[in-house]
Design a protein that fits this description.
The protein has 12 helices and 17 strands. It has 358 residues and is an alpha/beta fold. It has 2 domains: 7-163 and 326-356, Medium-chain alcohol dehydrogenases, catalytic domain (Quinone Oxidoreductase, Chain A, domain 1, Alpha-Beta Complex), CATH 3.90.180; 173-304, Rossmann fold (3-Layer(aba) Sandwich), CATH 3.40.50. Helix 8 (216-224) links the parallel strand 11 and strand 12 (229-231). The two termini are 23 Å apart. The structure holds zinc ion (2 copies). One zinc ion is lined by residues 105-106, 108-109, 111-112, 120-122.
């Protein structure tokens, strides 16, 4: 039905530090499946961790990475092939610009059955599990029959569209924080996720938004995107400063998006009693801290946040209304052949987001 090529170029991950550019079979749409031509795919911190080989990704009997797999979960593209019944199922046509959740839900476990698809027990994430969830560091990608597909309106730019996935995660995290007008909110970490959270927290209009990061370039961007105050904890005593600003009580809400154990300890110290602590990060190593702070001393509300359930439409709407911005995010775009250069660029903390553009 289409004149699409039988082969395509893709990055294939075999093991840590062994990712190769290869000619592979182009995915073909089965029943209710959709093939998209990739427009762009971001490089996430988790991709870097996978590439550099943390134990979490490649260790043990049941490693998270099921290789050989095509990485890439922050993508958008154009519909180029529809399997039988796919147009009706997903309400899309050839030529539509679309994206989907990073998770490919099984549709059958108790979480999927209850609409809690982002916690799917099987938990296939595009870009991490071969065959069932190949990702988008490729020319084409297959979207499954259980995925939700979201159309991207024309008013949304290329750069903005490439940030929908991380922004969707940021919306969920900010929703978990249940921010009130009188809250002093501290957000730790001003990467792609943190900057997006900065914009979203601002939309919630708290009394004060303080953003922490150890990189001053990122802090400058956080200011542009709505932070009332920025602090670099390597230059200033952040805990003391937050306490001073809150009559000694501490912040009402602390959102942890640094990925570093020190971001957790710092938060537990600077948050007030009965405060809300939201954990977003994925860590490369374990965090050790005194848990009595959570119960005995502060009676904290500790909440996790994972992926972006039901938040893709929120991001698309906010982008369309120009309430979210991609300004300053995209550091560079690379071809698939240059993925190693792209990974190096993404490793530099001055780069917020690096894109692969087939
Ligand atoms: Zn990601
Ligand atoms: Zn499931």
């Amino acid at each position: 039905m289409t004149n699409l090529p039988k082969k395509m170029k893709a990055v294939v991950a075999y093991k840590a530090e062994d990712f190769r550019v290869e000619e592979v079979d182009r995915p073909v749409a089965g029943k209710e499946e959709v093939i998209i031509k990739i427009s762009a795919c971001g490089i996430c911190g988790s991709d870097l961790k996978a590439y550099h080989g943390s134990d979490m990704y490649w260790g043990g009997d049941d490693p998270w990475m099921k290789a050989p797999v095509i990485p890439g979960h922050e993508f958008f593209g154009t519909v180029v092939e529809l399997g039988e019944g796919a147009a009706e199922k997903h309400q899309v046509e050839i030529g539509d610009r679309v994206t989907t959740d990073q998770i490919n839900p099984c549709g059958e476990c108790r979480f999927c059955q209850r609409g809690q698809y982002w916690m799917c027990e099987v938990h296939n994430i595009y870009g991490f599990q071969k065959d069932v969830a190949d990702g988008a560091w490729a020319e084409y990608m297959k979207i499954s029959n259980t995925s939700k597909i979201y159309k991207i309106p024309e008013a949304i730019s290329f750069e903005e569209a490439s940030l929908i996935e991380p922004m969707a995660c940021a919306v969920h995290t900010v929703q978990r924080a249940e921010i009130e007008f009188e809250d002093v909110v501290v957000l730790a970490g001003a990467g792609t996720l943190g900057l997006s959270m900065t914009q979203l927290i601002k939309l919630k209009t708290p009394k004060k938004l303080i953003v922490l990061d150890i990189n001053n370039k990122r802090l400058e961007l956080a200011k542009k995107h709505g932070a009332d105050l920025v602090i670099n904890p390597t230059e200033e005593d952040a805990i003391k400063r937050v306490k001073e600003l809150t009559d000694g009580y501490g912040c009402d809400v602390y959102i942890e998006a640094t990925g570093s154990p020190s971001g957790v300890k710092q938060g537990l110290e600077m948050i007030r009693k009965l405060g809300t602590f939201v954990e977003f990060s994925v860590f490369g190593k374990e965090t050790t801290t005194d848990w009595s702070v959570i119960g005995d001393r502060k009676e904290l509300d500790i909440r996790g946040s994972h992926l972006g359930p039901y938040t893709y439409p929120v991001v698309i709407d906010l982008l369309e209304r120009k309430l979210l911005s991609a300004e300053g995010y995209i550091a560079a775009k690379y071809k698939i052949d240059d993925f190693e250069k792209a990974l190096n660029k993404a490793h530099n903390k001055d780069s917020i987001k690096v894109l692969l553009k087939p």
